[in-house]
Amino acid sequence: MIRPVRSRSLTHTHGQYLMICKHTLGSIPLLALAGWLCCGGCAPDPKPFDPQAMQHVYRERATENVTRPLGALPLTLDRTFLVKRDGTQPASQPAPLPTTAESVGPVIRMSLRDLIQLAAINSLQVRVANYQPAVDENRVLEAEARFDPSFFTNLNFATQTILSPTPNTGTTSSGTQFQTSTLATGFKQNLPNGAQVQLQYQAIQTITKLPSATRFNAPFYESNWSFQVTQPLLQNAGTEVNRARIVVARNTQRVSLLDARLQLEKTLSEIEEAYWQLVQAESELKIQETLYNQSVDTAMLLQKRLGQDVTLVQTTQNNAALRGREAALEEARTRLSTFSNAIKRRVNDPNLPVAGSVVILPEDQPVQTPIAFDLAEQIAAGLANRAELAQQQIRIDSATVVYKAAQNNLLPQLNLVGSIGSKGGDASFGHAVDNNLFDNRAQEYSIGFQLDVPLGNREARAIFRRTQLQRLQAVDQYRDLIEQVCQEVRDAHDNVYTDWRRMQRNRQYLYSAEAALSAIQQEQDVGNVALTPDFVNRKLNAQEILAQARRENSRALTDYNVAISALERAKGTILKYDNVLMQEAPRVDGRAHRVARTQD
Fold first, then answer.
1. Residue 182: strand pairing partners
2. Is 348 helix (H, G, I), strand (E, B) or coil?
3. What is the DSSP letter of 261?
4. Cα separation of 560 and 58, whole Å?
5. Alpha helix (H) ranges present in 161-243?
6. Is 598 helix (H, G, I), strand (E, B) or coil?
7. In what order do the strands lie in the sheet with 150-162?
8. Exposure pattern of 130-162 as b/e (b: 16+ CB <10 Å)?
9. What is the pTM of this model?
10. For position 315, what pLDDT does the model report?
11. 109: left (phi over 0), alpha (psi -120 to 50) or beta
């Protein structure tokens, strides 16, 4: 079972409890053991499921959020930035933009490393996936238990009457009556080579009453023991066939371990992607705030010069752009909160529930240096590390084991059956036991063969053909997975280089947009140009182009960092990339479980 070292696994604890019960079983007296078996063993009832208690912390933390009032839709034009302002300053300054905390809620800055560590410890999606290896481990024990010895006891009481005709009349008399009490006890076990062995002791008490007698005679005791072996010689012969279920169960557990690893990789990859998108969202929020402030500054300038070289055309033109940028600002704030919620949903830190009001903001800056990846090395790494390929190899091994077992079932059943034992009888039970165990005057043994040949054998042939096709199918699936891994690694590799080249182009786009707006602003500052509608429009367009260039630059930077993470996931090395180790930790029952932890 994969579990974080700092978390507590319910499955792990439950396994410890079961093991304690198993160790103490040997000191329980026979009657107590019978009571233990009748009561279902030492396993306690599961803790009652309380959905309300689980929801309580989320309901409580949800009250931290402040519900902002929703104003009515405006029915008239807001003329705040359309009226003339006298003096060096406007009569009423526009309200400053709220801070990020004021606009999206209380914030906390966190590094990607911290979030990765919290996810490795607390992620519920990973924890849910971690239960399956423990479940499959117990299925391995179920398969192995087929070869555990068992103790049996049979107690039987029977009455039998033998009727016989009388010599004179030929009518049926009352007959001879027998009362028999039989106690049989012993051990039996299936062996890994297919043999079945049984050691049995049997004690029989027989009481007889003849037709002419008025009461039963003294009891006669019979004591015997026997040891019997049934060894298959063709079908079901050999450890490979009889341990097939165990091998398949262990392979299933190995597949589920890799499934848990895949879920951990998926969770960490999603957190990385959401983190860099969060970086981009904060950058775009700042870009939109800058764009809005530029519109406000232009509006205030136009208001001062209204009636000189500025008319209502220019002010309404700028006011329309300002209101559009104001609406986009609200959308940028919501997008920031959305990515924060996506991260909290995957990290599952109890101190940062999704229902809480705290918004996560990034602390790290994205990588802005070129990283060269050799494509051949990346494909080789993907073929060596991808969990899906390892899973398919295990499935092929299971299909091969099942195929060989089905091939064995085509053989007829030929069993060698042998037994040895002795009997002893006497009117005294003690003498009967002595005669049986020490005198051995009535020794018995037998040896023989049992042959069973199904005519047609269509079921076994159909099963064999099915397992043969399933193995071929699994091999072709492995070949298809190789193609898939190569494609994913190649695409991820190409995306890294494409995003880097896009960053180079966008950086020139950004510099060009800054130069264009700077030229317009210099022209305005020098005072050589009138604030005509065409000039205002050119300035607004230059501002939008610069904002878009900044957005594209931020998006390309985000995509580059996400592409690097995606390449590591495509290679199957995302855990190493994030410094997350999966190693085996011993349990109290000696079985090893895998542990996920982050390196310091």
1. 156, 204
2. coil
3. H
4. 36
5. 239-242
6. strand
7. 150-162, 176-190, 196-209, 220-232, 413-426, 442-452
8. bbbbbebbebbeebeeeeeeeeeeeeeeeeeee
9. 0.80
10. 87
11. beta
Q: What is the 3-state secondary structure (H, E, C) of 14-82?
A: HHHHHHHHHHHHHHCCHHHHHHHHHCCCCCCCCCCCCHHHHHHHHHHHHCCCCCCCCCCCCCCCCCCCC
Sign of the dihedral defined by the CA atoms of residues 432, 437, 441, 445, in that order: positive
Residue that wins the pLDDT comparison between 81 and 470 = 470
Cα 557 from Cα 276, distance rounded (Å): 9
- Report the pLDDT averaged over residues 273-291: 93
In 3-state terms, what secondary structure has residue 369? coil
d(CA 211, CA 205): 20
Cα gap 126→348, rounded to integer Å:
10
Handedness of CA 473, 478, 479, 480 (dihedral sign): positive
Hey, what are 122's tokens? 């607390």
In angstroms, the CA 200 to CA 574 distance is 59
Task: Judge contact between 474 and 397, C-beta under 8 A.
Answer: no
Q: How far apart are CA 185 and CA 30, in angstroms?
A: 15
Token duo for residue 445: 């043994």
Structure tokens of 204?
């029989």
Distance CA 464, CA 470 (A): 10
Q: What is the DSSP letter of 165?
A: B
**DSSP assignment, residue 166?**
-
Q: Among 343, 329, 266, 271, which Cα is nearest to 295's?
A: 329
Amino acid identity, position 564: I
> Residue 143's Cα: distance from chain center in Å?
23
Measured between alpha carbons, how far is 595 from 57 in angstroms, rounded to an integer?
Answer: 28
Per-residue confidence at 249, pLDDT binned at 50, 70, 90? very high
Do residues 182 and 220 touch, judged by C-beta distance below 8 A? Answer: no
pLDDT (average), residues 556-584? 89
pLDDT confidence of residue 595? 47
Show the domains of the chain with their CATH numbers: 3-41+108-144+244-398+467-598 (1.20.1600.10), 149-190+195-235+413-452 (no CATH)
Quote the pLDDT of residue 8.
Answer: 29
Per-residue exposure over 556-589, b if at least 16 CB sit within 10 Å of its own CB, e if not: bbbbbbbbbbbbbbbbbbbbebbebebeeeeeee
DSSP letters, 398-427, are: HHHHHHHHHHHTTSPEEEEEEEEEEEEEES
Do residues 357 and 64 lie in contact, with contact meaning Cβ atoms separated by under 8 Å?
A: yes
SS3 letters for 565-597? HHHHHHHCCHHHHCCEEEEEEECCCCCEEEEEE
pLDDT band at 91 (very low <50, low <70, confident <90, very high): very low
**For the segment 310-350, what is each residue's pLDDT rounded down to a tens digit?**
888 988 888 899 899 989 998 999 999 999 999 999 999 99
Average pLDDT of the chain is 83
Question: Phi and psi at residue 46, in whole multiples of 5°?
Answer: -65, 150
- Here the tokens at position 27 are 């000191």
Q: Residue 543 has which token pair?
A: 């501002």
Distance from the first to the final alpha carbon of the chain: 22
pLDDT in tens, 530-549: 888 888 888 899 999 999 99
| Number of C-beta neighbours around residue 546 at 10 A | 23
Structure tokens given for 136:
């499959």
Q: Which two tokens stand for residue 101?
A: 């905390």
- Between helix 124-144 and helix 244-304 the angle, nearest 10°, is 180
